[in-house]
Write a structure and sequence with these properties.
- There is one protein chain.
- The protein is α/β, with parallel strands linked by helices.
- The chain has a domain of 249 residues: NAD(P)-binding Rossmann-like Domain (Rossmann fold, 3-Layer(aba) Sandwich), CATH 3.40.50.
- Helices cover 49% and strands 12% of the residues.
- The protein contains 16 helices and 15 strands.
- The protein has a seven-stranded parallel beta sheet, sandwiched between helices. The protein has a two-stranded parallel ribbon with strand order 6-13.
- α2 packs across α3, α12 runs antiparallel to α13 and α15 packs parallel to α16.
- The longest helix is centred in the C-terminal third of the chain and has 48 residues.
- 32% of the residues are buried.
- It holds the Pfam family MXRA7_helical.
- It comes from Macrostomum lignano.
- This is DUF1731 domain-containing protein.
């Protein structure tokens, strides 16, 4: 709000996804922001306002800090599937997961208590909606808000959120700023953050690329609730918790908690459909819950395959107004494809598209190439099967012909007839679908086989008898045919003589 006076605000975890947006928004509103991170950014123009965690532990926060917000801590899905390979590594990761959040909240709380001339009026710690039990275990599914007074969920996320909030409220009374100032204490507020959606980070950045390739879809059953919040509203709720005139918790709200979630109640399938529609892609391929458990383990997989319907009831009652309450509208804000058409003096049209249009075209080209490759592989398999069938049929015909008995008196005619049948059978083999090189190789093989059988027949005793018969026929015709054939007469010469005397 323009009426809010500039303040000095310390932000832990300022280099994270939400932290970057929060620091940018606070500085644009005129506030002085002191960042606390693992390392000091080399390009930070405000080096005097950039601290590291070891420096805060040794020297505390600068004097004059009025508000403190902590966003630091490792993500519960940060390490990916690698932790499945080692139980020791997984336990070490869980320990670091708790220490990175709880230890740094305590570090900021201790440093805030030492700020002079007076401690900061508020300390805001970020928890998550994983605190609430699953809505999928009851029918109809319950909707949780800040008035929930039951035990936190027993999952890893629930235990982590409960530990974070215990550290936020540790040793401090949950009251108004006036009461806190009277006791020299700092008002503690916990913000239960939903799934923060933004184009350049967070959950959406890792979800978007499968959808860009056309292979995205729901996770698990798709019926699990997703308590989401637009990144601008996530920053807005944090600024509301830091700067707004918040009333003290009423009896219906037993703690100073604000839910940073959109008022809409959506499921994972609706999130996938909205993302796919904004990218102009289908959402057909579902990631089975078993695959998610295999990748992240049963404890961490619940973050993706389970969830709770959450309402920001107290956040709305304290005066915050959400900018994005519709999931599809939020997705359209992230993935806009702008086209401007204008006519130049020469009557030409120029179209300017965002980078999203280029990605759409590249994905379409990739899909066409994959479809063509799949078609070629299928055709090759069909041709291979057809060639094998033709070869088997040809081999069967050749074996049947070789098994036929030939009588001695008709041996010559039978041998020649068999060769003619083999030639006819070879001609009958369909070569339509064979490449030219295979055609030529098969034909050469058949001709070589016939030539070998012909040479073997010329050396047979039957050929000598045929030559003698030709000589006798020649004598009966008066010797006009040239008498008896020489012993080296070829099969073709015998054939011609037989045709002459027949």
């Amino acid at each position: 709000s323009p009426s809010v006076r500039p303040s000095v605000i310390a932000v832990g975890g300022a280099s994270g996804f939400i932290g970057r947006y929060l620091v940018r928004s606070l500085r644009s509103a005129g506030h002085r922001v002191v960042t606390v991170d693992r390392s000091r950014g080399a390009g930070d123009a405000r080096q005097q306002d950039a601290l590291t965690w070891p420096e805060v532990e040794r020297c505390g926060l600068p004097d004059g800090v009025e508000l403190v917000c902590n966003l630091s801590g490792r993500s519960i899905l940060d390490a990916g599937p690698a932790l499945r390979l080692s139980t020791v590594a997984y336990r070490r990761y869980v320990s670091e997961l708790f220490d990175s959040r709880i230890g740094r909240i305590r570090c900021l709380a201790a440093a805030a208590a030492a700020v002079r001339p007076k401690p900061p009026s508020r300390l805001v710690g970020v928890s998550a909606v994983g605190y609430y039990p699953s809505s999928m275990r009851a029918d109809p599914p319950p909707v949780f808000d800040e008035s929930y007074a039951g035990a936190p969920d027993a999952s890893l996320a629930g235990r982590l959120c409960a530990s974070i909030e215990a550290a936020v409220f540790e040793g401090a009374a949950k009251s108004t700023e006036a009461a806190a100032a009277a006791t020299g204490d700092t008002r503690r507020i916990a913000v239960r953050m939903g799934v923060a959606l933004g184009r350049d980070g967070g959950a959406l950045a890792s979800m978007a690329w499968p959808f860009r390739l056309g292979i995205g879809g729901p996770t698990g059953s798709g019926r699990q609730p997703v308590a989401w919040v637009h990144i601008s509203d996530a920053v807005g709720v944090l600024e509301h918790a830091l700067l707004a005139d918040l009333p003290p918790p009423t009896p219906s709200f037993n703690s100073d908690v604000l839910n940073a979630v959109a008022p809409a109640l959506n499921t994972n399938a609706e999130l996938a459909a909205a993302l796919a529609a904004s990218l102009r892609r289908p959402a057909l391929l579902t990631t089975p819950a078993a695959v998610v458990r295999l990748m992240f383990g049963a404890e961490r997989a619940g973050v993706l395959t389970d969830g709770a319907f959450v309402s920001p009831r107290r956040t709305l009652e304290t005066g915050y107004q959400f900018r994005f309450v519709d999931l599809r509208e939020a997705m359209r804000d992230f993935y806009k494809v702008h086209f401007s058409i204008k006519m130049t003096g020469g009557g030409l049209y120029e179209a300017e598209g965002a980078a999203q249009a280029v990605l759409i075209g590249l994905t379409a080209v990739l899909a066409c190439l994959l479809a063509t490759l799949a078609q070629q592989l299928m055709r090759r398999r069909q041709l291979t099967a057809r060639w094998a069938a033709e070869a088997a049929a040809y081999s069967a015909r050749a074996n049947d012909q070789a098994a036929e008995s030939v009588s001695a008196e008709d041996a010559g005619a039978s041998e020649m007839g068999q060769q003619q049948q083999q030639v006819a059978a070879a001609d009958a083999v369909p070569f339509t679908h064979l490449p030219g090189s295979l055609k030529r190789a098969e034909q050469a093989k058949i001709l070589q086989s016939l030539s070998e059988e012909e040479l073997q027949l010329e050396r047979d005793a039957v050929m000598d008898q045929l030559r003698q018969i030709c000589g006798i026929l020649a004598e009966r015709q008066g010797g006009e045919a040239g008498g008896e054939l020489p012993p080296e007469a070829s099969l073709n010469e015998v054939r011609s003589q037989m045709r002459l005397y027949s």
